[in-house]
Automatic annotation (TrEMBL):
Chief subcellular location: membrane
Membrane spanning residue stretches: 31-50, 186-204, 211-234, 246-265, 292-312, 318-345, 380-400, 522-540, 547-568, 580-599, 620-647, 653-681
UniProt-annotated stretches for the region Disordered: 1-22
Organism from which the protein derives: Nocardioides oceani
Record-given protein name: MMPL family transporter
Subcellular location: Cell membrane
SSD domain mapped to chain residues: 225-343, 531-678
Stretches with biased composition (Basic and acidic residues): 1-14
Length: 692
């Protein structure tokens, strides 16, 4: 194959000498230190420290200062604050429950210390006679504690159920237990699948039986180190996190770390075609890669840190954990990986070992150069066609609704949800999970006000103590319905003039979660865009290019949300998005999506110094096309792995990011950005001059 290296290349390379720090990382005498000491430190941290631990609190997932959160805070003063409610449901396998079965159920309920029940005792029988329920208090605590209590309850119910009767547990405690069960061993399962996907794609990318092991090992250790560091920091700072935090962190570290590794290895392999000394080749490759990786990582970290402004404590924890994870991923990619690769020698690329004098990465006969040449012939047509595709996909964005009901949170329906659905067939809606009104005012006055609110079926006194009283309010509307939402609004209006009186419970919390998400969107989304734009302005020292790049990632986000919505409401059958999904998808797509544009335009700026803006962009596309496409496909696949967890919010988030990354990698970065740069020429870099 003809060598298409530019004739001026030696001068161009000498003008960008490796920084002393990067040279020291891959020097003959010190490379082993940078390769092995961080790995040893990470392994020691895993053995000696392990992941941090912090007990989960009732307020961890509630939006700060909203009404349902204030109700939960007030509830902590009640005598039964140390318990959660489980609802035992008995149903006849055929026909109605007979007298003998009911007598047995009452005996079982007494043994379970069931509470309430009214005239029928602790067991309430449905009017149709096919079902009965009892309310059981379950000691609260961590998710593990609640799960253990509910599991014991279910085992006892199975053993004591009369012949012809099926016993199940539902209610808030059972739902919490089933939610925790989703993550039982999930982080290991997610890590194993993620590592498997990354390994497969690295083998396909490098076509080497050896090379993929080096970056996979480095990124794998980085992932474990990030999990330890982030959870220990959050525990020390008393920052809340939940079961999904470490899973999302692992996906991000594997995705970002492998992307950085792909970029570094691509430049290293290119330099090995020009330099015989592999240490010198790596020093040059690392110097040229570091700017793009550091700019990318800084942008992502700043974007993630905006989540510290979230009104939800666990969302703040997710932002902090992932920011730490990206810092760790960048460190291992820029320090540990280059030292490990240079110690291995050229043979690590076997069977396609790069030799001095082979064709350069900027190959004028490559597939990506042909793509660029085709775009260059008619840039306006390609730009308009790409914008039209993005606009068409964006249409679905206008139909999006948010707010999943409790029975829609799981991909695989657990017992608590199926039991709740069956219970609603025989008992009034809202009976098993009543709305809670908590007050320091006169409870009788509060009860009278609530009873007069539209949509209220009944009001029963709840626990009292320490100057706090609670009321259990059963709504006429079914959970998640517009009627139930209207009833919550009516109750809040009725008690508005009463001192320190708040409305809580599942229904009220869902309404407040939507309000909290709306508030976050107003504050955090513009801040993310501003930070990304500022980072690009500083990196490129240009005005036009950053504005175009930010506009493209915005278009990618809108298109991916629209396309995903059609997928969700069609084949997948979801009725809405979880409230947290739009914000998190925006953050990850904007912060990660701009990565590939950074990789492209920093290379274009480098090439433009010797070839001009037009040819510089085409050469950059030819040089980075393969590696960025591989990185994008890998990142999309890694986020799609979130679907292995049977939780709808993670499946939705993974799907949207997967679609967005593929759009950005295969369409926006390949066609739209080069077309815009070709149309504008030198003006793309205004006010900077890029010609040498």
């Amino acid at each position: 194959m003809t060598d298409h290296r530019p004739e001026h290349r030696p001068e161009h390379r000498s003008s960008q000498r490796p920084h002393p720090v990067t040279s020291r990382i891959v020097a003959r005498r010190t490379a082993w230190l940078f390769a092995f000491l961080p790995l040893v430190a990470a392994l020691l941290g895993l053995v000696l420290l392990g992941e941090g631990d912090r007990p989960q609190e009732p307020l961890d997932q509630l939006p700060r200062d909203l009404d349902s959160t204030l109700a939960t805070e007030l509830e902590q003063r009640l005598p039964d604050e140390g318990s959660d409610t489980a609802v035992v449901l008995w149903t006849a396998d055929e026909g109605e429950l007979d007298r003998g079965a009911l007598d047995e159920l009452r005996s079982v309920a007494q043994d379970l210390d069931a509470v309430g029940g009214g005239p029928q005792g602790p067991v309430s029988v449905a009017e149709d006679g096919t079902a009965a329920i009892a309310i059981v208090q379950v000691a609260s605590g961590s998710a593990t504690d609640v799960s253990a209590e509910v599991e014991d309850l279910r085992e006892e119910l199975e053993e004591t159920a009369p012949d012809g009767v099926t016993a199940r547990a539902t209610g808030p405690a059972a739902v919490q237990a089933d939610l925790a069960a989703v993550f039982d061993g999930a982080n290991f399962r997610l890590l194993a699948v993620t590592a498997g996907v990354v390994a497969l794609l690295l083998v396909i990318t490098y076509r080497s039986p050896v090379l993929w092991l080096v970056p996979l090992t480095v990124v794998g250790v980085a992932d474990r180190f990030a999990a330890i560091a982030s959870t220990q920091v959050m525990a020390a700072l008393d920052v809340a996190w939940d079961e999904s935090t470490v899973g999302i962190l692992s996906v991000l570290v594997f995705g970002a770390g492998t992307n950085y590794a792909l970029l570094l290895i691509s430049r290293y392999r290119d330099e090995l075609r020009h330099v015989e000394d592999r240490y010198a080749a790596m020093a040059t490759a690392l110097a040229r890669t570091a700017e793009a990786v550091l700019a990318s990582a800084t942008t992502v970290v700043l974007g993630l840190l905006t989540l510290l402004l979230s009104v939800v404590p666990t969302t703040r924890g997710l932002g902090l954990a992932c920011a730490i994870g990206v810092v760790v991923a960048a460190f291992f990619a820029l320090v540990v990986l280059p030292a490990a690769l240079v110690l291995c020698g050229r043979w690590v690329f076997w069977p396609k070992v790069p030799r001095t004098g082979q064709a350069a990465l900027v190959d004028m006969d490559s597939f990506w150069h042909r793509v660029g040449a085709r775009v260059a012939r008619r840039p306006a047509v390609f730009a308009c066609a790409t914008v039209a595709v993005i606009a068409a996909l964006t249409i679905g964005l206008f139909g999006i609704s948010t707010g999943l009901d409790q029975d829609e949170q799981f991909l695989d329906e657990p017992e608590a949800i199926s039991a709740s659905t069956r219970l609603a067939e025989s008992f009034p809606a809202g009976l098993t999970d009543p709305t809670r009104v908590v007050t320091t005012a006169d409870p009788q006055e509060v009860a009278r006000a609530v009873e007069g609110a539209e949509g209220v079926a009944s009001v029963q006194p709840g626990p009292q103590g320490d100057g706090v009283a609670s009321l259990n309010v059963v709504l006429e509307g079914s959970p998640g319905s517009g009627e139930a939402e209207s009833a919550i609004a009516a109750i809040r209006e009725a008690v508005d003039g009463l001192d320190d009186t708040h409305v809580g419970g599942t229904e009220a919390s869902a309404i407040d979660a939507r309000e909290g998400a709306a508030r976050e969107g107003v504050v955090i989304l513009p801040l993310i865009l501003g930070l990304v734009l500022a980072a690009l302005l500083l990196l490129l020292r240009s005005v036009v290019a950053p504005l175009i790049l930010v506009a493209t990632v915005l278009g990618t986000y809108a298109a991916s949300m629209g396309a995903a919505w059609w997928l969700f409401t069609g084949p997948l059958g979801f009725s809405a998005l979880d409230e947290s999904v739009p914000l998190l998808a925006f953050l990850f797509l904007v912060a990660l999506g701009v990565d590939y544009n950074i990789f492209l335009v920093t290379r274009a700026r480098e090439e433009a110094a010797g070839h001009g803006a037009r040819d510089g962009m085409l050469r950059a596309l030819a040089a980075t096309g393969g590696v960025i496409t591989s990185a994008g496909i890998l990142l999309a696949a890694v986020f799609a792995v979130l679907g292995v967890l049977p939780l709808v919010v993670l499946a939705q988030l993974g799907t949207i990011i997967c679609i967005g990354v593929l759009l950005d990698t295969l369409l926006v970065r390949t066609v739209l950005v080069p077309a815009a740069a070709l149309l504008l020429g030198d003006r793309f870099w205004w006010p900077r001059k890029v010609r040498g």
